[in-house]
Amino acid sequence: MGLLSKKDAALITDPLADNNPITIQVLGICSALAITAELKASIVMSLSVLFVLGVGNVVISLMRNIIPSKIRIIVQLIVVATLVIIVDQVLKAFAYDLSKTLSVFIGLIITNCIIMGRFEAFALGNGPWRSFLDGIGNALGYAVILIIVGFFRELLGSGTLLGFKVLGDPIEKTGLYALGYENNGFMLLSPMALIVVGIIIWVQRTRNKALVED
Amino acid sequence: MEHIELFFKSIFIDNMVFATFLGMCSYLAVSKKVSTAVGLGAAVIFVLAVTVPVNWLLDQYLLQPGALKWLGAEYADYDLSFLSFIMFIATIATMVQLVEIIVEKFAPALYNSLGIFLPLIAVNCAILGGSLFMQSREIPTLGLSLTYGVGSGIGWFLAILAIAAIREKIRYSSVPPALRGLGITFIITGLMAIGFMSFGGMLTGGDDEGKKEETTAVQVEKKEVEEKKVETTEEKAEELANNTKEITE
To answer: Which GO terms describe its cellular component (chain B) (predicted)?
Structure first.
């Protein structure tokens, strides 16, 4: 980390835990919940957000002195929408099946509160390099939660990870299934995403009492 | 008939919050008090009812593959659908601004109650989500798209109203400290979503009416009797099991 000063490094590490965009700042929940039934979709979604937030933060930060504050929302929306179109077209070209699974949720990155929230809160008041680090940091914080939720939902729901049958074959009764283990299909349904995130928040706040709300 | 079907489907079965998690950010942030929740909910219904039909027209006459036929035969094979995100979000931002100006001019009282929420709505996922789902579900007519917009808006309104009521009540219960605030809201929303899943069989035939009333009753009970949450969930799980059984039958 010789490249980064301590203050800059904090921009990346803070959002990973104590200032996590999802569990503490409450930003970007929508997409985090809807697509986490599979680990692979979670990872792709995280990468898309990483790209959009990193590049978008730099662009907005470069333009911060020439955007009239009255129309800044619409300028921000146009920047995000352009970046999201790029992501969407790339996914359609190289990972068509996955882009079908993610369906409208790639488009919904545009209105993902993380993006607008970071633009408003950080990129409008800081230089490009720091904004870039902030974007990357927050996107990684988002990715951590998505991957944890995706991991548990896929593992407990369908007994696979990234499509590999890590717990054995449910039909031929190998591995854990030989002992009478059953997949919990309920984990694949959308309400469980909310409950898993709730539990993550619970664990996090139990470990760090300073985060407890009154 | 298809209007009624789509209307109830978009309120209950494909509820914006509980089935697709759209608009969660404002749902969590603005649900601390019932009165503000009502304001935001009303604004969402309003804006969805305007933007979904407008975006339907855009989609139909500008964006779909072959939509430019009306300009002449040489435009017939143009496909502008990659532009839909930017067109939709621009329409939404403009419509929100327009609605704000119109409401301010003609209904100052309404403006004062909705005022602060209207600009927020441009970046609410529920609004863009409404338009994107309208596109991906290929809603056939303008009238149906209006029904879909209004229905989804009402669904979102119901959801935020319910959670705001629960959060007002839950202040009097002893929630574990680490779960207070955000944590418990997530878990309650999860339980409510499980409840809403039971609407899944509503339009697939059978005793529609009875089932609808029954589940609404459970929902109301849940709202009022927070302490009995665990019992209600069990009830819901049972209901869910019955429901899936019925569907498979």
So the answer is: endomembrane system; Gram-negative-bacterium-type cell wall; plasma membrane
Place of tokens 């209004």: B150
Give the model's pLDDT for residue B114. 66
CB B56 within 8 A of CB B143: no
What does the pLDDT read at residue B60? 85
pTM for the model stands at 0.78
B141 & B57 share domain: yes
What is the domain count for chain B? 2
Residue A37 belongs to a domain: yes
The pLDDT assigned to A2 comes to: 52
- CB contacts, 8 Å: B124 with chain A: 111
Phi-psi category of A180—alpha, beta or left, where left has phi over 0 and alpha has psi -120 to 50?
A: left
Contacts of B194 in chain A (CB under 8 A): 191
* Residues of B with Cβ-Cβ distance to A49 under 8 angstroms: none
Q: Domain range spanning residue B231?
A: 213-248
Pair (B131, B217) in one structural domain: no
* Among the listed residues A148, A135, A160, A155, the one whose alpha carbon sits nearest the alpha carbon of residue A21: A135
> How far from A169 is each of A161, A165, A175, B236, CA to CA, in Å?
13, 7, 7, 31
- Express each pLDDT in B173-218 by its tens digit: 888 877 887 888 888 988 988 888 888 776 655 444 444 444 554 4
Amino acid at B237: A
Closest CA–CA distance from residue A102 to any residue of chain B (Å): 12
- Domain encompassing residue A175: 25-213
Mutate to test the interface with B, among A27, A84, A110, A197 (most CBs of B within 10 A): A110
Same domain, residue pair B168 and B220:
no
Confidence of residue A134 (pLDDT cuts 50, 70, 90): confident
- Total domains in chain A come to 1
Query: The complex's ipTM?
Result: 0.80
- Smallest Cβ distance to B21: which of A34, A111, A116? A34
pLDDT of B150 above 90: yes
Distance CA A136, CA A13 (A): 10
Residue B222 and residue B128 share a domain: no
Are B164 and B184 within one domain?
yes
Q: Which residues of B touch A84 (CB under 8 A)?
A: 85
Is position A134 within any domain? yes
Examine residue A2 and state whether it is found in any structural domain, yes or no: no
